[in-house]
């Protein structure tokens, strides 16, 4: 036996038990010579006719594979030369005298191994869809392949995959295959053909398959010498065989025993069936627990694994070898291409197709033999769903003919947004129009509400004298610098371009053109409309995450090799070598088909191994009893069957079945069934329970074998995003090895739910879990404590296909999983190294197809008015309907809502809540649901958006929603396009209303088509839905037209180039970065030498080249590129963008989309907050492009201009703005822009929970517009500093921002404007809470890490305060402003510093004070024992603020007069807290609660606390001496300096209240803004703002407000606001409420309330003197219309007050 090692030094490895007997290596030339000599010897000895042909077929192919590259791994053995030595060895051994140990030693000799053969290539499948074809040659034709296809004669094979048998039987696979099943045996050669391509996922094999045999299979009996028979017989009695062996069926046992009795004694074998132990079932083998080291070579990147055989018998015949991927040259016209490629470990079978396969021919000595298939055409007809979808897309395209410019404009229209213009001062705009006949632009002023056609007329007046002769409709206005055109039917001010120019105070530049001149370079042509729809033709240029590398070898070549080897096996005397070749080729075929090995292939390989070892016989009885049927020859006479030929026939059919099965990989639709006459029955009549068999998971990676001990599946049945039944868990099994590693369950799963109860859109979800092998040191993250099973992947399958037939037969389901199993959900892992395994699931095949027929809607029902309900029921129903979304609906709410559904028609937007409350969606429940749906008034498009969520899977509901959404304009649709693309995941079938809606809109709008392409391209990375998005993207590229398609391909190429440059710059460091950037940009410039290209960010921007000198990079962690591009329009400005790699920009896209929608809502309500909206687009996995806002800087850059401590100063922002706005008018305008934009940013960032807000993530434009960037943290997922949140404030509002807002250090009325803007904007967003919740809910499946569940939606819902009134929300947001303004960066830094320095445990050291208010520590020895102690009284203090202090009477031993010490409540609490630290195990007396409802600094609270504190002191002093006499207690009661300064306990006079008081002398001035309203039997008075207060001394007061409802003799109606410090323009936004049933008001009617007066007083809180009166008002409530809110300013006067 000779062995040749590969030229690159990579040696073939075998199991250690065999290594000792390997022969030495020889060089390649010597090996080739040895091979040629050996083959020549074989040819001479056998004298087989036509051997020259055989030699050429085998030798030439092998030599080509060896010689074409040094990387080939050639392993050649010559078993023929060893056969004689084996026989000689056996002749000298007495088999009967061998012990078991000696026999095992003998068997482990290499002589007993299967022959080594060259490894065949691992070739990719042509496409995920292939079908089987067989060809029949004329009857007399033998041993030759032809090109012709004469009329085929059809004969039928028995079923290979019949309906699954659910009663377990010995030797029966769960999918119905039985090892002893009789098989069809033809006298003709069987040729496998490549099936026709099919795109989609899987469908069942038919019970019978058309089969056209071609040629004959000659009978060659297997070779088994008498000596070998004795050895095998001896083996059968060994302990290993008895432990691991497997009995065959009774039929085989009987047949072989009978055959043995008819043979001579010297050749008899007592029980040939014992050879079955050689081919153990995987479940009967020891489980594979370990895998040898994986070997990788640097050059080819191939990987191999060496398997150590635990069973010593595996080393004899099963031959566990290296899993090395070899190279195979691709033949082109019979010649080697000389190129080699490697196969990646996980092939992407989802790729729709490879390049068109090349036909191959092979010349032989005796003539030309036709190949298996001359050329495989790209045909999609096999999968019905894809075919039907293609037809639907083609029909859709006919509605958008190329000749109609309305549906095929060929240019980009400027987006339009309607807004209310409430400020008449800016109603006029100045327009500059370029006209071809004029050198200078025409400039004039027009109104923003003027139609574009009127602007065109005004411009034409400069060109034509008589406009009656001019066709105004033939003219258009193009935006200068952009390839976009204003829409003539809209007013000029509604275009976003005009609005942005007004925002930036930029000049409005337009160009007057005619339709004939405008560039329509993106329009579809006549050829585009005639081109057939092809879903995969244009995908080859799209960068897909899981696409296989281009491999030249194909499945054709493997099948070609297979047939040649079959011919060779049937011609040779000794078939050991050729059969081993055949088995290895079959293994390669299985490996190409996702490492799927069906039970039929497993059993066929076993039989083939047995057949080659059986003795030759022509006894028909033996052949019959061995389980092989005889068949008639062409002459009609009966002839004994050749076991080898029969086994090869069976193997061929098994391979054909695998190919046919793989054609429909993961498909939810069935192939064209040959049983066209199969009957159907309706699903609602099917009483069978849903059941299926989980057979196995194929293609398990070796890494899993060592990392995971057991695996199991969770099977769940879902509809509307919820489980229909409790999920079922499979049994836990390990990994086994046959051809490949697999997880074999072979387990029947039964859901106790009848098929009749299944909704049409029911989906079966299978989730694979792995249980970690704790003993494995190489497990991922093995250094961490791992708990519980890990999710390895998930796959789903609709139970009814697109034709509404229940799925049946065997399914292969692709399950994509990350190499790091922790990140399998949603999108692919960052590096994109996804692996795929295939789940084999067997569904039962019923006698009749089960069809789901959608029922008709029920008859119309009577609607009722909600007013007819009783009040409690009506109130409950209205409360449920008022909720913003379906998130908070309880089970009881849903039941009640469904019961009262006919009362809700007047509340149109309640339909989603009612549908989500429907108790069932089975066939019997649908008529009522459909009736409700058809009678319901149409929803608004934005409200109907909720019906596209995962909660609504029903096709009728979703189709109705799409019909309502049709009313959206193209520009509105563009805003919500990401959500529509995500909603495609919730469609059950490809041909849906939503898909056609998006394709139709893309055909009519270049802008929609542009963004739809990039969104679809980005979703290809979704591991679960990537296949679906490929089909939709393929359909889009087929209908969009050649010009647009080529433009998108250019953009894709440009993005790839930018990505490569960004990666290179990021990987380099230091000064090399600039050089890498320069080199990379020069390469990109070569792209622009051949092309102009539109930017992915905006289809209106066209770049013609790079400005390389202006390109740079940012110094942040991601090192993004700053790219400067020269505008192709000479009238346009330079284009600046940023390109990022290594960061997921989809979250930034979503945050910016939400902010843009907020801005549009504000504008439509007449509130222009002057928001900066910039574009951001994810162009691939962890990369994307961001628009750069010109003339802007980060706050950090602005602040550091004023030193390192610039962020702690108040003036940097104001001075920076003044630098760019030197005049007072310009600065006021910039300040105003800052106030408005800052208000919008505060609201937007709070509602969206945007975190990680540092000064590098906030930018300021020199026009005063502030905006945020970098939205990597949102929905409250704060950046953490250890275990603490860095974002402590609700939003960013710092003192330097307040300085700009106020126009100085002191609060002014400008800050009140800021507060009002914030509250108004917040309330406007609250009205659209349902819209934002729906938009975010549709993005839950996008794979964003911070938007993954309902809890994230709950954050936004809570932030919007859905159940509060506008007034309450105003108060709430005002408190947020105060909280944010008080939470400056310095306070946060102090907090972190204090936390790090926290060292307090027990008592402080001697040099530290034991109490914060005492400088020293005192003890019992120093002061004397305390005899009595009590809280004597309390006093009111005014310095520094109003508070109460408690007088403690302390009497010590030896003292006659007690001492008095003064302690605050907080000081008492400090004593208690430190006692708890000092005595953690002691039970201390309970301390009074600090929390008090209402005001704390009032007399009643002080009186109550006096009693409680006295009780605490008494308990403390009566406790154990260790506590009562400790230094801490004695220090607390030691007199302080402040105690000695007080003259007795009456030293501080208590101020008296004047009732009523007269106002102090002096000037009173200012105004107060109040909101007065009445609802729910309650009067609400909201004190909003006060401005221009006046004081006697001119100092800034500390104002607060008191209100009374007069007459009020007992002051029970007193209400008081908080104190606002040091301001003449305070903002309160606080509510005072008066209920009619409260205290003295109880029993008063509305008329009585109107007889009362509201008295309001403004006072200044003073520390050392009486509070100062600043003014007041008295309002008679009879003058107000209390049924509606009144908001007004009132002048303060000098009136008496309480």
From TrEMBL:
Entry annotated with the keyword Kinase: yes
Domain annotation C2 PI3K-type: ranges: 686-853
Biased composition (Basic and acidic residues): 22-31, 288-303
Domain C2, first and last residues per copy: 1564-1690
InterPro entries in the record: ARM-type_fold, C2_dom, C2_domain_sf, Kinase-like_dom_sf, PI3-kinase_C2-alpha_cat, PI3/4_kinase, PI3/4_kinase_cat_dom, PI3/4_kinase_cat_sf
Region described as Disordered: spans on this chain: 1-32, 288-308
Subcellular location: Cell membrane; Cytoplasmic vesicle, Clathrin-coated vesicle; Golgi apparatus, trans-Golgi network; Nucleus
Reaction(s) the record says it catalyses: a 1,2-diacyl-sn-glycero-3-phospho-(1D-myo-inositol) + ATP = a 1,2-diacyl-sn-glycero-3-phospho-(1D-myo-inositol-3-phosphate) + ADP + H(+); a 1,2-diacyl-sn-glycero-3-phospho-(1D-myo-inositol 4-phosphate) + ATP = a 1,2-diacyl-sn-glycero-3-phospho-(1D-myo-inositol-3,4-bisphosphate) + ADP + H(+); a 1,2-diacyl-sn-glycero-3-phospho-(1D-myo-inositol-4,5-bisphosphate) + ATP = a 1,2-diacyl-sn-glycero-3-phospho-(1D-myo-inositol-3,4,5-trisphosphate) + ADP + H(+)
Swiss-Prot/TrEMBL GO biological process terms: cell migration; endocytosis; exocytosis; phosphatidylinositol 3-kinase/protein kinase B signal transduction; phosphatidylinositol-mediated signaling
Name under which the protein is recorded: Phosphatidylinositol 4-phosphate 3-kinase C2 domain-containing subunit alpha
UniProt organism field: Merops nubicus
